[in-house]
Amino acid sequence: MNNMIELKNIIKIYNSKKKIKVLNRLSFSFKAGKIYSLVGPSGSGKSTLLNLLSLIDIPTSGNLRISNRNIDFNSKSDNDKIRAKKIGIIYQDNNLLPDFTAMENVYLARLSIEENKKKAMEDAKKLINNLGLSNRSNHLSSELSGGEMQRVSIARALINSPDIILADEPTGSLDTTNAKEVFKILLRLKNKNRLIIFATHNRYFANMADCKIELNSGKIKRATNARIK
Ligand SMILES: Nc1ncnc2c1ncn2[C@@H]1O[C@H](COP(=O)(O)OP(=O)(O)OP(=O)(O)O)[C@@H](O)[C@H]1O
Ligand SMILES: [Mg+2]
Question: Whose Cα sits closest to atom 27 in ligand 1?
């Protein structure tokens, strides 16, 4: 079985003023080599689920396995390491460090797992060039366009060669042309050892995944083979 992520009976309850059960006994297996889209109305729990999968948040109960290893949600430092090594994350708003250059934003993410700065810079340069940003690599990230920033975020997510890529509305802040470009890049990142999951409100992009997962009322309403050939 090439299950990269397995969820079993995941429950997530937020205890703010009102208690909300966002995820209600969710079970699902995500396979390596596939791209999944996550759709559902606003508030249906897409970001909540992605934050659990990226080990940023913890579930109220339930089990999560990554690469056949049980995740212990109490081991924050282990989970930080797993995230840094295995998971590349792309957000709607790119979370780049505004006072650092594109190049620095990318290679600094490598230094969290390995100290070889020269190699980190070489690899960052390759990624930046591959994403068509060679003439932007020394610009501060705050000086880049939205589409360029999102390509830098993709380069940053890729710098540690992650097996898992999680993207939460990666094109939510972009115009149609840039959104298509970023999606083209995202789809090209597929390989047989890699799992990609993205949340989107865009039906066209959602249907480009291998499997579309529809969240509603804390459950997976449907998982369908989505890819339009
Ligand atoms: N930290 C939090 N504390 C309390 N409630 C929260 C918290 N984060 C999210 N929620 C609630 O959980 C529900 C799911 O939110 P989530 O952000 O996962 O939805 P979403 O599907 O990503 O929505 P959108 O499409 O708008 O991004 C919402 O009702 C939201 O208000
Ligand atoms: Mg969201």
Answer: 42
As for how many domains the chain has, the answer is 1
Q: What phi and psi values does residue 155 have, to the nearest 5 degrees?
A: -60, -40
Q: How far is CA 137 from CA 111, 133, 145, 179, 185, in A?
A: 18, 6, 13, 21, 18
Identify the residue whose tokens are 């659990």.
52
More confident residue, 46 or 178: 46
CA 147 to chain centre: 17
Q: For the whole model, what pTM was predicted? A: 0.95
Residue 28 lies in a domain: no
Picking from 84, 59, 79, 85, the residue whose alpha carbon sits closest to that of residue 7 is 59
DSSP state of 141: G
Which stretches within the chain are classed as H helix? 46-53, 76-86, 102-111, 117-130, 146-158, 176-188, 203-206
Tokens of 183: 């999606």
42 lines ligand 1 (CB under 6 A): yes
Contacts for 66 with CB less than 8 Å, ≥ 6 apart: 4, 5, 82, 86, 164
| Residue of minimum CA distance from atom 10 in ligand 1 | 14
Residue 206 lies in a domain: yes
Look up the CATH number of the domain holding residue 93. 3.40.50.300
Residue type, 224: T
pLDDT tens across 185-207, in order?
999 999 999 999 999 999 999 99
Instruction: For residue 35, give the 3-state DSSP assignment.
Output: strand
The answer to whether the CB of 34 falls within 8 A of the CB of 212 is no
**63 touches 70 (CB < 8 A):** yes
